[in-house]
Design brief:
By secondary structure, the protein is of the alpha+beta class. It folds into three domains: about 80 residues; about 110 residues, D-amino Acid Aminotransferase, Chain A, domain 1 (2-Layer Sandwich), CATH 3.30.470; about 60 residues, Dna Ligase, domain 1 (2-Layer Sandwich). Helix content is about 30%, strand content about 20%. It contains eight helices and twelve strands. Helix 2 runs antiparallel to helix 3. The radius of gyration is 19 Å and the shape is globular. The mean pLDDT is about 95.
Length: about 290
């Protein structure tokens, strides 16, 4: 069988986060012929066996361009690593309400159409806590994400905008955030991410760090239930890749934070097979579209 010709959608050149180490990893696993295309300039993709948005970082900064790209991928019948309909669904974190309604334990979330102090006061009353986290429903890399204690003002950049409001769960600092990784529907590995002292954001650009961990059985149970519910809601099969982020609440129950089905960092250095199952999942999808 000939090698698959793969295109990976990647950030715009001026994107601030360094992704060169991930690019090198993907070339190692997928081959030197792998093509990397600025996601905002992805036009003629028909010649590729598979297109994946795994590095389309920053799509939340140009939502019209992102959703236009998804429409074109669907219209042109491009073979995409995870189906366009689940990429579109996963782009807006309002999907958490759908998963909650389907019985998945999620971090409690309220949506404010135009964030103001009254919405924060209502959320504090509903959640029974004084410290909240706000974030845009279309976001990534902790863009626009803030922790607000009682008396903190809403950042001017977020005031009046559509925002998610969640209770701050102290276990993000006390224990960390779990990420579980699945390739072609099979569990691969897990990590736990920690924020820098005094912060709550686990991304490395904010001083966060990660380490390998064994996925607790209850964490795997939640991850697989969430992926199953997402498949049912979007009428999709097993995905080429998925990352499931969660943490424990104050009672020790795992709660889903996010499903990362578009452009997650996969932390393949922690995978027991160094990413072989991931590469195989993409190759299989390249020659088995649908």
């Amino acid at each position: 069988m000939r090698p698959a010709l793969l295109a990976i959608l990647c950030p715009v050149p001026e994107y601030e986060e360094d992704w060169s180490h991930i690019k090198a990893d993907y070339i190692r696993l997928l081959g030197e012929d792998t093509v990397f295309i600025d996601w905002t300039k992805a036009r003629d993709l028909a010649g590729f066996d598979l297109v994946t948005p795994l590095l389309a970082w920053g799509y939340q900064r140009d939502c019209p361009c992102w959703f236009d790209l998804l429409d074109r991928l669907e219209r042109d019948g491009i073979n995409v690593s995870n189906p366009v309909r689940i990429l579109r669904w996963n782009s807006d974190k309002s999907y958490l309400a759908e998963l909650d309604a389907a019985g998945i334990a999620t971090v409690p979330t309220r949506m404010a159409d135009a964030l103001d102090e009254a919405a924060l006061a209502d959320a504090r009353s509903a959640f029974g806590t004084t410290t909240l986290v706000i974030k845009p429903p279309i976001s990534g890399g902790a863009d626009g994400t803030f922790r607000l204690a009682q008396g903190d003002s809403i950042p001017p950049t977020e005031l009046g905008h559509r925002m998610m409001i969640q209770p701050y769960l102290a276990n993000i600092a006390d224990e960390g955030e779990y990420s579980l990784f699945y390739f072609a529907g099979q569990f691969s590995h897990a990590i736990i991410k920690h924020p820098a002292k005094g912060d709550f954001r686990v991304q490395d650009q904010f001083g966060g760090y990660e380490e390998a961990t064994d996925a607790p059985a209850l964490a795997q149970e939640l991850a697989e239930a969430a992926l199953g519910a997402a498949a049912s809601l979007t009428d999709t099969e097993a995905l080429a890749y998925a990352r499931v982020d969660m943490l424990r609440d104050g009672e020790g129950r795992f709660r889903l934070m996010e499903l990362e089905l578009i452009e997650p960092s996969l932390f393949l250095r922690f995978a027991p097979d160094s990413g072989a199952a991931f590469a195989q999942a993409l190759r299989s999808k390249a020659f088995s579209p649908g």
